[in-house]
Write a structure and sequence with these properties.
By secondary structure, chain A is an alpha+beta fold. Helices cover about 25% and strands about 15% of the residues of chain A. The longest helix of chain A has 17 residues. Chain A is globular. Chain A starts with a strand and ends in a 6-residue tail after the last helix. Classes of the chains: A alpha+beta (about 240), B alpha+beta (about 475).
C-alpha cells in the first residue's frame, strides 16, 4: 500500500513498510546517519537522523520511523542542524579521537560527519577517559578510545555472521563493546574471525592488526551485498 | 653585584627557548645558558599504543623533520619484525630522507640564518628576516625557497603530503614512486644544483671576510658523532655504523652498531632545561660532550662518495684545524650547504636507478622481537628510536634521543663563548645586534625544539637585566 508524504515540501510516495530514511534516500534526499548501515537492522542509537514531523512535538529518528500517509517531514532546520553538531561534539568529547594519527584518518564516518556539520571546535570539556586497546586477536584490533557505541559491529556479528560474539556492557557513556562474556577478543571462542565487524565500523575503533595511520580502508557495501544476496536467495545452497 | 640577561624567546629557531646571560660585578659575562622551555611527553603517551601507529605518531614530534622520525620509527619496526626490507623500499626511504635533508637545510640556511649573514647582525630586526631578504636579495631568496620546495616535493611525491606523510612503515614503505613523478623530480634538479652552488660561493666569501664569527661562534674541541657507511666509512644518512672522533681526528668509536647506543651514550638532566644532555659515557659528563649534525657528519666521514660533494668536502676540511677537523660551530652553515650538494647528487643517482620504480616495497612481519632500535641521520644529527613492545605489539617503553639534544652541551658552550667575546662592561644594557649574535650562535646548530616554528622572526625578544637581588635594572623589547 503506497503512502504519500512530503519531505522538505517535496511530495514523494513510499511503501508502507519503509522508514522515513529509506523513503528519503529513494527520493535522493540526504539525511545524515552514523549507526545506520545498509544490510543491518536499525536501532536509532546515534540520533543523527532525527527529523521534524508535523504534529509531533518530539523529534523522530528517520531510520526507525515508518512513513505514514500525509506525513510532513523536515530534515534541514536550524534546530536539527544545531542538534546534529551537538551530537558530533559530544561524541568527540566522550572518548579520545585523534584524527591525525588514527588508522581511519580520511576514511572515517565520524570525521566526515564532523566536517559536514561544520564542527570547527568542541564546546564541551573532553572527558579523556582512560580506555584500553585490545590487540589479543591475531588479525584484528579494537581501540575503545575511538568507539562511538553505534553497535554496527554487534549487529553485523549477530545478523550477518550469526556468531553474536560482540555485545555491549555497562550503561551510558561508560558502555563498552565486549567479546563473549567480556574476555579478550583473541580468547573469544565464538569469534569466526570473519572481519565483518571491522568492515562495519564507522571509525578507527576496529582495525586490521599492523595498520598504520590512515591505512584502514573499509568496504561496508559488502555487508549490504551479503544481506541482499541472502534475502533474495541468489545462492543455491 | 651579579646580573642576569635573559633572551626570551630565541627567534628564528624551531621551537621555544630562552637564553640567560649571567654578568659578574664588572659587567663581564660569567656564564650563559640555553634553556629549552617546552615539554612534549611523547615518550610517555606512546606507551600503550600499537607499534603500527608509532611512525605516524612520532612523526608529529616535528613539522620540519617528520621524515626523520618516520624513518627511525619504521626502522625500529623493521627491527621488531626482524625483517630485511625489500631493496627498493630502502632506496625509496633514502630518497625521501635526502629530500628532507635538502628542504630542512635550505630552510635553516636561506629562511632562518641568511638574514643574519646577508643583511648583517646589526641590521634592523624588523627587516632581518626572510621578507627583508626577499626585498634585498630577491634572486637568492627565490632560489632558496624553491630549493626547499624541491626537497618538499620529493617528500610529497613519495608520501602523498609534504608534512607528516605516514608512508614509511615497519617492513618498508606504503607507496612506490611513479615514472611520471621520477621524471618531474629529475627536471627540477638542475635549478637546485645551481642554487646550492651559488650559496656555497657566497658562504665561502663570507667566511673569508668574517673570521671573527668563524673564530668565536662555538669554536672549541669536542667529540663528533655520526653514522658512516658500513663499507668504507663514507658519509651516511640512513643506515650504517656509528663513528665518534675527537677534534684531532682520532677515531674513538668505529664500526659500532648504533642499536647498542645505550652502551656508550648517557643522558644527563639539568634542572634549568627540559632538554637532556647526552654525553659519551667513557669520558663522563660533561667531558664526553659531542656534536652531531652536518658539521659532525662531515668531520667523521672518510669521504662523501660523489664527485662534486667530495670536492667541496676537501675545501671544507682545508678550513679546519691542522688535522682537517672543523671545530667552529659557525661552519655548520657551510656543512649544511655541502650536504645539500651531496643529497642532490645522491638523489640524481637514485632517480637513475631502475629499481626505484619497483612496486615490491613492503615486507610483512609480526612481532618477532620485543625490543627494537632504529637509527637514522636527521638533518640535525643522529636520531635514535628505541621501543620495547609486548607480544601483541603494544609499546611498553619508549626512548628517543633527538639530534638537537645531543648538541645541548655544545650549544651552551657556544652561547657562553659568543657572550664572553662580544659582551663587555654591560651594566645597563647591551646593543640588540650583540644579543642577536648570541641567538645566531644557537641558530647555527639549527636546533629543532618542537614541531612549531617561528620562522619569520616576528616574535618579540625580551631582554631583561636582573640584579642579584632580583630587581629588574633594564628591559629591552624588540620585534
Amino acid at each position: 500500500m503506497p503512502r504519500t508524504l512530503t519531505i522538505n515540501g517535496q511530495e514523494i510516495s513510499a511503501r508502507s513498510d519503509q522508514t522515513i530514511l529509506e523513503a528519503a534516500r529513494e527520493a535522493n534526499i540526504h539525511i545524515p546517519t552514523l549507526c545506520h548501515l545498509d544490510g543491518l537492522t536499525d536501532v536509532g542509537a546515534c540520533r543523527m537522523c532525527l527529523v521534524e514531523v508535523s504534529g509531533s512535538s518530539k523529534l523522530l529518528p528517520a531510520c526507525t520511523t515508518r512513513v505514514q500517509e500525509g506525513m510532513e517531514v523536515r530534515t534541514e532546520t536550524e534546530r536539527l542542524r544545531a542538534y546534529r553538531r551537538q551530537i558530533i561534539e559530544l561524541l568527540f568529547a566522550e572518548r579520545n579521537h585523534v584524527c591525525a594519527v588514527c588508522v581511519a584518518n580520511g576514511n572515517c564516518e565520524l570525521q566526515d560527519a564532523a566536517i559536514a556539520v561544520g564542527m570547527d571546535h568542541v564546546r564541551y570539556d573532553y572527558l579523556f577517559p582512560k580506555l584500553g586497546l585490545d590487540l589479543s586477536h591475531e588479525r584484528f584490533g579494537m581501540d575503545h578510545n575511538r568507539c562511538i557505541l553505534c553497535t554496527r559491529c554487534v549487529r553485523a556479528c549477530d545478523q550477518l555472521e550469526g556468531a553474536h560474539t560482540i555485545d555491549v556492557m555497562g550503561r551510558g557513556a561508560r558502555s563498552l563493546i565486549i567479546h563473549d562474556m567480556n574476555v579478550p577478543w583473541g580468547e573469544a571462542t565464538t569469534c569466526t574471525s570473519c572481519g565483518k565487524c571491522v568492515m562495519a565500523c564507522p571509525t578507527g575503533a576496529l582495525f586490521k592488526q599492523g595498520s598504520t595511520v590512515a591505512e584502514m580502508v573499509r568496504d561496508a557495501d559488502k555487508l549490504a551485498f551479503l544481506r541482499a544476496a541472502r534475502d533474495r536467495k541468489v545462492w543455491n545452497v | 653585584m651579579t646580573q642576569r640577561i635573559v633572551i626570551d624567546p630565541v627567534t628564528r629557531i624551531e621551537g621555544h627557548a630562552k637564553i640567560s646571560i649571567y654578568l659578574d660585578d664588572a659587567g663581564e659575562v660569567s656564564d650563559a645558558r640555553f634553556h629549552v622551555v617546552e615539554f612534549r611527553g611523547f615518550e610517555k603517551f606512546c606507551e600503550g599504543r600499537p607499534l603500527g601507529e608509532m611512525a605516524g605518531i612520532t612523526a608529529r614530534v616535528c613539522g620540519i623533520c617528520p621524515v626523520s622520525h618516520l624513518l627511525a620509527s619504521a626502522k625500529t619496526g623493521d627491527d621488531i619484525f626482524a625483517v630485511t626490507i625489500p631493496p627498493a623500499a630502502e632506496k625509496l626511504r633514502r630518497l625521501m630522507n635526502l629530500g628532507q635533508i635538502v628542504q630542512s637545510h635550505a630552510l635553516s640556511f636561506f629562511h632562518l640564518s641568511s638574514p643574519d649573514l646577508l643583511l648583517g647582525y646589526d641590521s634592523d630586526p624588523a627587516q632581518r628576516n626572510i621578507f627583508g631578504l626577499i626585498a634585498r636579495h630577491p634572486d637568492l631568496a627565490r632560489g632558496g625557497i624553491r630549493l626547499r620546495q624541491f626537497g618538499q616535493e620529493v617528500i610529497e611525491l613519495l608520501g602523498g603530503r609534504k608534512i607528516h606523510p605516514a608512508w614509511a612503515v615497519p617492513g618498508g614503505v606504503r607507496e612506490p614512486l611513479t615514472a611520471e613523478n621520477r621524471d618531474y623530480l629529475r627536471s627540477r634538479l638542475p635549478e637546485a644544483f645551481d642554487t646550492v652552488k651559488q650559496a656555497l660561493g657566497f658562504f665561502k666569501r663570507y667566511a673569508d671576510e668574517h673570521a671573527e664569527e668563524v673564530e668565536h661562534f662555538g669554536n672549541f674541541p669536542t667529540l663528533f658523532m655520526g653514522l658512516v657507511s658500513k663499507d668504507g666509512g663514507r658519509w651516511e644518512h640512513y643506515d650504517g655504523w656509528l663513528r665518534i672522533t675527537d677534534s684531532e681526528g682520532h677515531v674513538l668509536v668505529d664500526g659500532f652498531d648504533p642499536r647498542r647506543y645505550a652502551e656508550i651514550l648517557g643522558e644527563a638532566v639539568e634542572p634549568w632545561s627540559y632538554l637532556k644532555s647526552p654525553y659519551y659515557k667513557p669520558l663522563g659528563y660533561p667531558d664526553g660532550a659531542y656534536r652531531v649534525g652536518p658539521l659532525a657528519r662531515l668531520n667523521v666521514c672518510s669521504g662523501i662518495g660523489t664527485p662534486q660533494a667530495d670536492a667541496e668536502l676537501a675545501e671544507f676540511r682545508q678550513r679546519g684545524n691542522a688535522h682537517g677537523i672543523v671545530t667552529s660551530s659557525f661552519m655548520y652553515h657551510y656543512a649544511r650547504l655541502v650536504e645539500i650538494l651531496a643529497a642532490l647528487e645522491r638523489i640524481t643517482l637514485l632517480l637513475d636507478d631502475p629499481d626505484i620504480l619497483s612496486t615490491r616495497i613492503r615486507a610483512s612481519g609480526g612481532i618477532n622481537k620485543l625490543h627494537g632500535v632504529g637509527v637514522s641521520e636527521a638533518p640535525r644529527g643522529t636520531l635514535f628510536h628505541d621501543y620495547e613492545v609486548d607480544e601483541r605489539g603494544m609499546v611498553r617503553r619508549m626512548n628517543m634521543i633527538i639530534a638537537t639534544g645531543q648538541n645541548n652541551i655544545a650549544m651552551n658552550r657556544t652561547v657562553k663563548q659568543i657572550a664572553q667575546h662580544w659582551i663587555h662592561g654591560a651594566t645597563a644594557g647591551i646593543p640588540e645586534g650583540l644579543l642577536n649574535r648570541v641567538e645566531a650562535g644557537i641558530r647555527a646548530f639549527d636546533p629543532c625544539l618542537s614541531c612549531s616554528t617561528h620562522a619569520i622572526g616576528q616574535m618579540p625578544m625580551i631582554v631583561t637585566l636582573i640584579g642579584s637581588d632580583g630587581t629588574v635594572l633594564a628591559e629591552v623589547k624588540r620585534g
